[in-house]
Amino acid sequence: MNKMMRYSLIALAIAAFYAAPTTYAQVYKWTDKNGKVHFTDKPPKHLKLEPEVVNITPKKTASASKFPAIAKLEPIKNSAAADAKTVVLEHLSIEYKGNTDDENALGKTYKYTREARRKASRLRQSDKAPPSALPCIHEGNLTLNNANYIIKRVNFGQSFNEVFADYGYAVAADKTFALQENTSIDLSLAAVVTDIRLAHCGSRSAPDLRTFTQNSTYLKIEWTVFDNLARRVVFKTTSEGVDDSFKKPPRFNGAAISASLAFRQATEYLLAQQEFVDILLANTSLNTGFSDEGGSIKDIKIVHGNPGTKFVSKTGEIEKASVTIRTAGGHGSGFVISAPGYVLTNYHVVAQNKEVIVIIGGKEQRAVVVRSNPDRDVALLKLERSFDAEPMHIDAHDVSLGEEIYVVGTPLDERLDFSISRGIISARRTLDEKSYYQTDAAVNPGNSGGPVFNSSGNVIGITVAGLFTRDGGSRNINYVIPILDALDALKIKM
Description:
The strands form five sheets. Strands 4, 5, 6, 7, 8, 9 and 10 form a seven-stranded mixed sheet that branches. This protein is rod-shaped. It has 494 residues and is an alpha+beta fold. The protein has nine helices and 24 strands. Helix content is 17%, strand content 35%. The chain has three domains: 3-55, no CATH class; 87-280, no CATH class; 303-489, Beta Barrel (Thrombin, subunit H), CATH 2.40.10.120.
């Protein structure tokens, strides 16, 4: 047997082994009378001595990566269908905290055997996968770059939302139209992958994840929960998830599916933690003693101001009754209208929030929305504590064109609370059959809901809207809801 034939027989034996991985291939080594060494796939019959058997060491087809064991946890359902805080997965990244010097740390990459590659190459997305796993050959080690490549191509937000919805919790609704109201989000979550293990087997020629592959994925997630209303981190924890499908039939887009399933389990195990669920279901509604049956609110006492006073002489007491209203989605302005702790503002400031934070004199306290009128864009809040200073005084008389006015509020940033701008009543307008004052006083986002005063320092209206340039600059055309219209829309008797 010549050298070429000998190498061919060895190659055939190896190929036979990988084509049928459960068969152990053998090659027989023998020497002829001239001392020449031969290799054959069958034992020669003319030899008196038994030929030497050369065993081909099989390469493992299973993942060499050792995934941590994960205890099975049961997610806690919102079985009572109680109101839950809305959540959104706002950020996901990899900050691997393992030993990157360990070449086996992140896992192994494999390639299909020649015959398996042929089978895989014939598969299309719509095809049914083979009934069992295809044989794989260890090719190398996975890197952090490989992990990042996969993570960037997976829609983890969809898996996150599906888990919360499956167990009865609220997730942030998608905003389809530009004018569609988008409910503020209560909790924002950041997920940081601190440990990741992968096993991947596929065709080397595949340029992306959209091909049939066999995969296993382990993820350890560090969760940070941020309360958008309180503006602070309220909870930190970790959870794990695994999808061990390397030895199962290949899946189209298998790497992405595996990572998504591992993340889904980690999300489910986040919902298995009672402390986190308590945050989701925390009933923080205040017991204000308020009962609204649609009639007048009996404990509101509106104070009429003295027309003989001056705005500049009343700024001290006006500042005490001016408030910043914080919601999960931003902030606006408002003012105390009655001593028991009632605050007037715009409906669009609080929107569908049932509870907000009111900042008075730099101190925060919670308040509930007790009545609102979206059509007139006004809302009434009740503070958790009584207001111990003088509320705003109102002026029920009509205003005159050209009359000097003062606008008070918190424009642009919470740190700019109690900002005062001055202007005049430029016009009276009727828009959508509703009355407004038009003013040239400077108004910016954040001023909404704030009080507007006449020169006597008494409230004549509520800032509601303005016209702005594309860059956000004011066009000096701003609108004010007359105070009597606001009180009437909320059925508050004088």
